[in-house]
């Protein structure tokens, strides 16, 4: 059992899904059609189009998108000639019906994402996506929080459910290159299926981590045009293409064409430049998911603390999404500890 | 003979020197005093203050700076309590008199820079700086252009002239982590003095390359607040501090304090965000120095070529600074070749 990348990389663009966070989920028809057309011409392997939190994410909790998932896919489809259309689905946010809708819209790749310790909730969705004839890539999110061994255990579950690829997803941009290397190697050694990597740039390491992932055996790599994404953003896809080409890996993506799409198509639509500010840097440093930021700022104000101290503490306690209520307790404990000194 | 980093890194800030390119060399007194104060409080090892092209750079050719080197150093000095004040000097642009001026202004570290094959022009400057009691760090610029062996040969010259440190300077942001590793290892094995690394972010690798450099034995690392610098900029210093701390290296720099200096002091002065655009990406991809860009655009227009093809060709032919006139010939040859097909 050994997964290998064969020297060829499948580059997946997620500008119109993960990048959506940086656009407050307000991609319109013009943006979607132009971006998809540019990406398809550049010949990326797959183009992911969904609400930032996956199909079904448009809601009060995650933010309403301008267009529904169906509408976005409908706009995207006719602009594709060679790439495959992909969607993201988080079981619990999206449903099996969403997968059927995706299939009806010509989606050929389903990406099913769970927290890195909860692969077991993806079984039915993986099965259905396979039955619908789609390639299935599975995400183990916040992958820095668990050991390579635990990650492999979870990836093996996804493999047993029928996944074609398992991604190590560095949701908080918290992995160092050494951490990426050991995780990718572990999965490549233990799986029969392919391994992918999805990086974020909180520590300025998204490109290097993607390169380390490929050097270690990964074959699916995610990026976004200009690095568009929440906080400090994703791996900048045109930079990925340059670095892979310079490193001797072939991806089939046209370098000039993806650069043009980034600069001439995406950039004019951007609301703000994709840089590393202190908030994102702290999240990467502490290994904390971005949805905790607002709660942290509130708790810091209440107890007159430096929000950075709270973020470090949340990271240490390995608090996960859904446990946002605990933040106020963390802040209170920190406040007591500091006033004791 | 073996240089080692002992696990402690000396972080040198060059916001007020290399960052000056991104400010068209227009740093004023308020900016200099506030930035120096913030960097000193954060306890960086050294603070470099000079024209972007080093002392004596203020000219029609390199761009006039708002304040002279003397004036900048005079403003900087009283704001320093713990860091050491540094200057950059390129023999040929700066003179030995500039070194004396620097010493008079309390500069404790001279950084003497040459092209990676021209170490021999630095002998007198290194000698004088040592005689003036300064720590001397030497730069081998455009270090991607030569082999590790050639680089060591040049570094040995600088060591023999009295240098305390030799830096591998990735001026074009063209080195991959593997290229940094082999160069740093070679120098660490062959030198008795310390090794440094100065990265640029054209390929999104400035942070990772700095980490690889330290992992390979380098002990002096350069960065700038928010990555301020020409094109895609330098290694972002507050991100460097985070990554080194997370990797278990100590630098003595206060993480919160350097973050605050980046966001509250430097950022409001910035003219544009520090991102990777296509021009800079191409320069890093091809390994070409940024001063060639304007000439390339002109030549491309003249012969109706894609400037990217010219940049790739300049990189292949290893044309160096001072040979800008050759660009028009490169373009003409490319034009002939393309119209033959």
Automatic annotation (TrEMBL), chains A, B:
<feature type="binding site">
    <location>
        <position position="200"/>
    </location>
    <ligand>
        <name>Mn(2+)</name>
    </ligand>
</feature>
<feature type="binding site">
    <location>
        <position position="198"/>
    </location>
    <ligand>
        <name>substrate</name>
    </ligand>
</feature>
<keyword id="KW-0479">Metal-binding</keyword>
<dbReference type="Pfam" id="PF07836">
    <property type="entry name" value="DmpG_comm"/>
</dbReference>
<feature type="binding site">
    <location>
        <position position="198"/>
    </location>
    <ligand>
        <name>Mn(2+)</name>
    </ligand>
</feature>
<dbReference type="InterPro" id="IPR000891">
    <property type="entry name" value="PYR_CT"/>
</dbReference>
<dbReference type="GO" id="GO:0009098">
    <property type="term" value="P:L-leucine biosynthetic process"/>
</dbReference>
<feature type="site" description="Transition state stabilizer">
    <location>
        <position position="17"/>
    </location>
</feature>
<dbReference type="GO" id="GO:0030145">
    <property type="term" value="F:manganese ion binding"/>
</dbReference>
<dbReference type="InterPro" id="IPR035685">
    <property type="entry name" value="DRE_TIM_HOA"/>
</dbReference>
<keyword id="KW-0058">Aromatic hydrocarbons catabolism</keyword>
<comment type="similarity">
    <text>Belongs to the 4-hydroxy-2-oxovalerate aldolase family.</text>
</comment>
<dbReference type="InterPro" id="IPR013785">
    <property type="entry name" value="Aldolase_TIM"/>
</dbReference>
<dbReference type="InterPro" id="IPR050073">
    <property type="entry name" value="2-IPM_HCS-like"/>
</dbReference>
<keyword id="KW-0464">Manganese</keyword>
<feature type="binding site">
    <location>
        <position position="289"/>
    </location>
    <ligand>
        <name>substrate</name>
    </ligand>
</feature>
<feature type="active site" description="Proton acceptor">
    <location>
        <position position="21"/>
    </location>
</feature>
<dbReference type="Pfam" id="PF00682">
    <property type="entry name" value="HMGL-like"/>
</dbReference>
<feature type="domain" description="Pyruvate carboxyltransferase">
    <location>
        <begin position="9"/>
        <end position="259"/>
    </location>
</feature>
<feature type="binding site">
    <location>
        <position position="171"/>
    </location>
    <ligand>
        <name>substrate</name>
    </ligand>
</feature>
<dbReference type="GO" id="GO:0008701">
    <property type="term" value="F:4-hydroxy-2-oxovalerate aldolase activity"/>
</dbReference>
<dbReference type="GO" id="GO:0003852">
    <property type="term" value="F:2-isopropylmalate synthase activity"/>
</dbReference>
<feature type="binding site">
    <location>
        <position position="18"/>
    </location>
    <ligand>
        <name>Mn(2+)</name>
    </ligand>
</feature>
<keyword id="KW-0456">Lyase</keyword>
<dbReference type="InterPro" id="IPR012425">
    <property type="entry name" value="DmpG_comm"/>
</dbReference>
<protein>
    <recommendedName>
        <fullName>4-hydroxy-2-oxovalerate aldolase</fullName>
        <ecNumber>4.1.3.39</ecNumber>
    </recommendedName>
</protein>
<dbReference type="InterPro" id="IPR017629">
    <property type="entry name" value="4OH_2_O-val_aldolase"/>
</dbReference>
<feature type="binding site">
    <location>
        <begin position="17"/>
        <end position="18"/>
    </location>
    <ligand>
        <name>substrate</name>
    </ligand>
</feature>
């Amino acid at each position: 059992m050994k997964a290998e990348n064969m020297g060829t990389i499948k580059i997946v663009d997620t500008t119109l899904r993960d990048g959506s966070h940086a656009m407050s989920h307000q991609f319109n028809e013009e943006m979607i059609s132009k971006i998809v057309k540019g990406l398809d011409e550049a010949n990326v392997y797959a183009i992911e189009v969904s609400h930032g939190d996956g199909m079904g994410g448009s809601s009060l909790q995650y933010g309403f998108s301008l267009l529904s998932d169906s509408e976005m896919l409908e706009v995207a489809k006719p602009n594709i000639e060679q790439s495959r259309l992909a969607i993201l689905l988080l079981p619990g946010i999206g449903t099996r019906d969403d997968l059927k809708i995706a299939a009806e819209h010509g989606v050929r790749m389903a990406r099913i994402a769970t927290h890195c310790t909860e692969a077991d909730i993806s079984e039915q969705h993986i099965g259905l996506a396979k039955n619908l004839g789609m390639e299935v890539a599975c995400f183990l999110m916040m992958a820095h929080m668990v050991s390579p061994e635990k990650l492999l255990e979870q990836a093996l579950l996804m493999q047993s459910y029928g996944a074609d690829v398992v991604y190590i997803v560095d949701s908080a941009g918290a992995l160092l290159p050494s951490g990426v290397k050991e995780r990718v190697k572990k999965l490549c050694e233990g799986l029969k299926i392919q391994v992918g990597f999805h990086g974020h740039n909180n520590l300025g390491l998204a490109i290097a981590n993607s390169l380390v992932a490929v050097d270690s055996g990964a074959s699916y790599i995610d990026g976004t045009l200009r690095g568009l994404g929440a906080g400090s953003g994703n791996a900048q896809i045109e930079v990925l293409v340059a670095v892979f080409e310079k490193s001797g890996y072939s991806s089939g993506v046209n370098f000039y064409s993806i650069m043009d799409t980034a600069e001439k198509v995406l950039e004019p639509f951007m609301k703000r430049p994709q840089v590393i500010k202190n908030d994102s840097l702290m999240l990467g440093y502490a290994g904390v998911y971005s949805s905790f930021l607002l709660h942290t700022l509130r708790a810091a104000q209440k107890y007159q603390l430096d929000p950075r101290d709270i973020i470090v503490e949340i990271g240490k306690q390995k608090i996960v999404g859904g446990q946002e209520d605990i933040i106020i307790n963390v802040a209170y404990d920190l406040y007591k500890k500091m006033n004791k000194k």
